[in-house]
Amino acid sequence: MDPLAAPVPSVEDLVASAHVVSLPLTTRFRGITVREAVVFDGPMRATEFSPFVEYGDVEASTWLRAAIEFGWTEQPPIRRDSIRVNATVPSVPAHEVAGILARFPGCRTAKVKVAEPSQTREDDVARVRAVREALGPEGRIRVDANGGWNVDEAEHAVHDLAPFDLEYVEQPCANVEELVELRTRIRWMGVPIAADESVRKAEDPLAVARAEAADVLVVKAQPLGGIRRALRILERTGLPVVVSSALDTSVGLAMGARLAAAVPELEFDCGLGTAALLAADVTEDPLLPVDGAVPVRDVDLSPELLARYAADRDRTAWWLERIERCHRLLTD
Ligand SMILES: O=C(O)CCC(=O)C1=CC=C[C@@H](O)[C@@H]1C(=O)O
Ligand SMILES: [Mg+2]
């Protein structure tokens, strides 16, 4: 039994407090235009369960553990009450970049999606160039390939993108061995590597640090099983951290902000500004970036918005069954 695991409420309690929503996005992101999520009225605060629909139950049950911990238990002490965030730029054509950045007022850092399978390296270069032009020389730019390159492709891409002055390249290749190889090859270019999927989807989230495959860790509260587990992973690796969202509603973003607030040292801006990519939310007071930061606070659910964006009957039934299966995995 994991000493960090919060007691699991009954499935009846979970289902009774669940609201399944379907929120439109402003821009297509990781192939979706609608974000489905479950938010709960937890006894401590509103909380969220939103593993992507294609994830299996074992992976999704880790996200449920996080939801329960946040909604049903006290949280670790915080060290800051506001978190600087990056703008998140989906794999849009270069001419749409300025419009996206305008949704993230005051953000000095932008994370740019690259390596989209249907696009070319020239598309990536054009998008990153447009971001550099918009942010000016002081801006910080990081790119995220979501493991989309092999080592050679990644080396060429970093070579082409380095002139725009990259803060780091996130998950350039899919696995840890490739990251190690790439890290050796690009060391002379001075572009650090950040690991995301190699932490949040790995059976052993510490493997990437042990292999010295990355310079920075991207951590997300839900996929890592909650704030306490994420903090424990960070403690054990000692690497600098970027806390990021999973394209959550403002409720999940509040969980992420809470994690970012509890981290001992936070030198990088965090990927928690993504409420700006949602065209609708579950609260009247969303966790949108203001002056380049989001506040660390709980979020009040809006009954009116929950009703307006409620998922249809079939999707609601699908999510409630998923909760039941994940609950069984946590209690068996
Ligand atoms: O980090 C950010 O700026 C926002 C979050 C973000 O990019 C992601 C959220 C959810 C799923 C992922 O494909 C993606 C990521 O890979 O980091
Ligand atoms: Mg990522």
From TrEMBL:
Residues reported to bind Mg(2+): D144, E170, D196
A Pfam family matched in the record: Enolase_like_N
Superkingdom to which the source organism belongs: Bacteria
Enzyme class per UniProt: lyase
Keyword check for Lyase: yes
Catalytic activity: (1R,6R)-6-hydroxy-2-succinyl-cyclohexa-2,4-diene-1-carboxylate = 2-succinylbenzoate + H2O
Metabolic or biological pathway: Quinol/quinone metabolism; 1,4-dihydroxy-2-naphthoate biosynthesis; 1,4-dihydroxy-2-naphthoate from chorismate: step 4/7; Quinol/quinone metabolism; menaquinone biosynthesis
Cofactor list: a divalent metal cation
Enzyme Commission number, as recorded: 4.2.1.113
Keywords annotated in UniProt: Lyase, Magnesium, Menaquinone biosynthesis, Metal-binding
GO biological process: amino acid catabolic process; menaquinone biosynthetic process
Catalytic-site annotation from UniProt: K113, K220
GO molecular function, one term: O-succinylbenzoate synthase activity
Stored InterPro entries: Enolase-like_C_sf, Enolase_C-like, Mandel_Rmase/mucon_lact_enz_CS, Mandelate_racemase_C, OSB_synthase_MenC1
Domain Mandelate racemase/muconate lactonizing enzyme C-terminal span(s) in chain numbering: 93-189
NCBIfam families xrefs: PRK02901.1
Family of this protein: Belongs to the mandelate racemase/muconate lactonizing enzyme family. MenC type 1 subfamily.
Its biological purpose: Converts 2-succinyl-6-hydroxy-2,4-cyclohexadiene-1-carboxylate (SHCHC) to 2-succinylbenzoate (OSB).
Protein name in the entry: o-succinylbenzoate synthase
Species this chain originates from: Labedella phragmitis
Organism ancestry: Bacteria, Bacillati, Actinomycetota, Actinomycetes, Micrococcales
